[in-house]
């Protein structure tokens, strides 16, 4: 029923798009081609979330934990795993099928080479939330704020941005701002252009 559910309910598409983990159940009752087609569709909606099959309802609990920024085993952070930006690179337009909700979901990955002034960042995020909030399904970022010695990590769902976390130091040599967005009906150009306008005006 996975394909039919995604066809019928936009909410199911949005939930798949923002998930940190996607578990496919009852795969043992479906044919392999059907499972692979569903997984391919889910991957287009959410490039980064691991897709895990439950075998006759059973799943290893370890497979669904440690989805956040912090790794319990090492008590450290893994920005690369958390953002997983490589999976968003080079993603052109998806093949369209009439009436599918999927075509309204966009994945955007942005790099910013120069530090961003804190005031410009605040104003941009407030503006983005005010104008696009309900359609900003998921946002994750590590941000180089000009006034801070280390980066901040930010994330949000729709109109809610969670309190940012300041890291004491960069977790690696790459000090660029890296942002990932999953949106409903907001294209990449709109996000990039708005960020450029706010950072340009603050320069």
Structure description:
There is one protein chain. The radius of gyration is 18 Å and the shape is globular. About 2% of the residues have low confidence. The protein starts with a helix and ends with a helix. The chain contains 6 helices and 10 strands; from the N terminus they run ααβαβββαβαβββββα. Helix 3 links the parallel strand 1 and strand 2. The strands form 3 sheets. Strands 5, 6, 7, 8, 9 and 10 form a 6-stranded antiparallel sheet that branches. It is of the alpha+beta class.
Structural class: alpha+beta
Could you tell me how far the N terminus lies from the C terminus, measured between alpha carbons in angstroms? 52 Å
Rg, Cα atoms, Å: 18 Å
Average the pLDDT over all residues and give the rounded result: 82
Strand-residue proportion? 15-25%
Main sheet summary: 6 strands, antiparallel
The percent of residues in helical segments reads 25-40%
Could you tell me the number of beta strands? 10
Succession of helices and strands: HHEHEEEHEHEEEEEH
- Helix count from the secondary structure assignment: 6
- How would you describe the shape? globular
Low-confidence stretches: 92-96
Task: Give me a quick take on this structure.
The chain is 32% helix and 22% strand.
Name some characteristics of this structure:
single chain, about 200 residues, alpha+beta, six-stranded antiparallel β-sheet, two-stranded parallel ribbon, 6 helices, 10 strands, about 20% strand, globular
Per-chain topology:
Blueprint: H1 2-8, H2 10-18, E1 22-24, H3 32-45, E2 51-53, E3 70-71, E4 76-77, H4 79-83, E5 105-112, H5 118-132, E6 136-143, E7 152-157, E8 160-161, E9 165-166, E10 177-184, H6 188-202
Parallel strand pairs: 1-2
Antiparallel strand pairs: 3-4, 5-10, 6-7, 6-10, 7-8, 7-9
